[in-house]
Design goal:
Elements: H1 2-20, H2 41-53, E1 59-62, E2 66-68, E3 71-80, E4 83-93, E5 97-106, E6 109-121, E7 124-135, E8 138-147, H3 150-153, E9 159-160, H4 169-185, E10 192-197, E11 204-210, E12 217-222, H5 227-234, H6 236-239, E13 247-251, E14 254-258
Parallel strand pairs: 12-14
Antiparallel strand pairs: 1-3, 2-3, 2-12, 3-4, 4-5, 5-6, 6-7, 7-8, 8-9, 10-11, 11-12, 13-14
Length: 271
Amino acid sequence: MKLYTILILLAVFSTITGCNKFKSDHPQAEITDQYTTDLTANSILHYADSINKNLNRYTKATSLVYMLGDLSFYVEKYSEADQPILLIEHAFNGGVSNSLKKYYFRNDSLILEEEKNQLANDDGSIFKDSRTFLRSNTIFKVENRTASVGGEIKSLPFLDVPLSVNKTADKTLLDNVKTLNDVINRVDRFDVVFESITTFPDSRYIVLRSKIQNSYTASILVQEKDAFIDSLLNDPMTFKDQKLNFTWAIKDKEAVYVPVANNTSASGLKR
């Protein structure tokens, strides 16, 4: 009986060690078995790097380009099985500043925000990178680096920043995530409806406005007409204040209308 028990234990041990030798190439494999509280800055950065190298694995959604004054921005969202993996915000403020923010998620929880900023002044441009690490939706580490020449910043080390005494910093990041999802889903302030279609000599734009007064607008460059665009041009008042359903792509920081074959005037209305 004892020999039988020993053989069973050896078989179990062999199975466990054999499984441990298996290493998945999935981006989340490195930290899948770790509890959120066990995450470190290094493991999070490794995870983010894996995500960046495997973006073609995920489903991608892109927002319209929204504008408010001199500010324009758009958002990209990468998901897997309806779970967010990465949110990217591209923002431009005239010729004054540009920013790129990336929000990385694991098991639907935000674990990293990366931010790159470029600020123009009379002496040239200032570049700043920052990284904010989270565990259980709580910031545990912040670091940044700054340079006056863009090419130099990548060679500089990140320096730790004392954690803010602002107890709402965690909530602010999570609120930012909610806003970016609103942008992607065109809801709340970003629920834009048809305002007009312009007809300049060398270009035309679909102009959308938020349902909230003095809020965001969005414009979509039309390079090629189809039946839906003809309907907008021929009878724009039919579509006034309606939410339109159409496809676009981002090119050179601008939303560009993607024609649909055999489109009809009614198909552009959001059902």
